[in-house]
Specification:
The protein is an all-beta fold and 341 residues long. The strands form five sheets. Strands 10, 11, 13, 16, 18 and 21 form a six-stranded antiparallel beta sheet that branches. Strands 1, 2, 4, 7 and 9 form a five-stranded antiparallel beta sheet that branches. The chain contains one helix and 21 strands. The protein has a single domain, classed as Jelly Rolls (Sandwich), CATH 2.60.120. The N terminus is likely disordered. Keywords: Signal.
Length: 341
């Protein structure tokens, strides 16, 4: 099984800035048709165990790109009305000329409709940058991936959503001609008493063109509670604080400016298991003070405050291309990127 798993402080930023659908001239966009999603039951031991995961394509967009062009992709999905607690993943799979591909997935368990929990209505955003590096057409498909967390089949409703190219001219790092982004490596990067801090996802030193005056910085983390192969009380939770750090540097290597204003603390029970934690600083103003240069770094600091062992989830490996398929692919999870302007 490939295990994967919005706070009030983030909601205003998310609603007012990065996640709003943009005007038609700025994006190629498809609105999802509401539908019922099948979440197959977990196979019993007699049936061989494991996971039977359904993959439901719900929308496809495409864009003809130049070799130097970078674009910003956003998929929003809202689901509810689950008959049984189930895994809900918002995945985007992109492909282009030759063997180029870029995939991202964000997931969280959706509670059943009778639970009385806020987690019975879940909205997830999967967002990232693409840069094929060759001229051609890029196609991106949004998939709902999911399975029941019981041996019985479940369903839930895809209520609304969209996939779009929200920006088709993202400014690149002038040193390498690529957009600024980075994903967390495969595995679950633990948070507990022995390792109370992880700085993931992270963007190491990067440079922007001299005309850039603002950075829109995103750090999306996927938190898992009760990491596999560790002791876990399923009736307890983990408490983790997240802070998005953005630094600008001087030419002599000293700090010019820092921002840590975007932060949130979550108390996540085992039954949620996978928690989507979006952090977004949409208005980091680039300083032109003496000695300051357009060189930056950014990261999400995750601090374990107590409870069960947790972790930051990295790239999900060997995901079936479709239900029952023997062909697989990898999809990045915890991820950070920059939209300069």
């Amino acid at each position: 099984m490939n295990v994967r798993s919005l706070a009030a402080a983030s909601v205003l930023v998310l609603a007012a800035g990065l996640l709003q659908p943009v005007a038609a001239h700025a994006a190629t966009s498809v609105t999802f048709t509401p539908r019922t999603i099948l979440a197959p039951g977990l196979p019993t031991a007699e049936e061989g165990g494991g996971v039977d995961q359904n993959v439901t394509p719900v929308g496809t967009i495409s864009l003809t790109m130049t070799a130097s062009q970078s674009a910003y992709v956003v998929s929003k999905m809202r689901v509810n009305s689950a008959t049984i607690r189930s895994l809900f993943d918002n995945e985007v799979v992109c492909s282009g000329r030759g063997a180029w591909s870029k995939n991202m997935v964000i997931g969280q368990n959706v509670y059943d409709i009778h639970s009385g929990s806020p987690n019975q209505d879940v909205t997830l955003y999967t967002r990232f940058l693409i840069h094929p590096g060759v001229a051609g057409t890029v196609t991106c498909t949004a998939n709902v991936r999911g399975n029941s967390l019981s041996n019985d089949d479940a369903t839930y409703r895809l209520v609304s959503g969209y996939i779009q190219f929200a920006d088709t001219s993202v400014i690149n790092n002038p040193l390498n001609g690529k957009p600024v982004q980075g994903s967390v490596s495969a595995g679950v990067h633990r948070l507990n008493a022995g390792t109370p801090v992880q700085r993931l996802p992270a963007l190491d030193d990067f440079t922007m063109p001299s005309g850039v005056t603002n950075l829109n910085v995103v750090g999306d983390a996927e938190l898992m509670v009760c990491v596999p192969s560790t002791p876990c009380d399923r009736y307890q939770s983990a408490q983790v604080k997240f802070t998005l750090f953005i630094n600008q540097w001087r030419s002599d290597g000293t700090l010019c400016k820092t921002d840590a204003s975007i932060q949130v603390t979550h108390d996540v029970p085992y039954w949620v298991h996978h928690k989507y934690v979006p952090l977004n600083k949409a208005d980091f103003t680039v300083s032109d003070a003496p000695g300051c240069i357009p060189r930056f770094n950014a990261y999400v600091k995750a601090e374990w405050l107590g409870g069960e062992t947790a972790g930051i989830q990295g790239t999900a490996l060997d995901l079936p291309d479709s239900r029952g398929s023997s062909s697989t692919h990898d999809s990045d999870m915890s991820h950070a990127f920059v939209l300069p302007s």
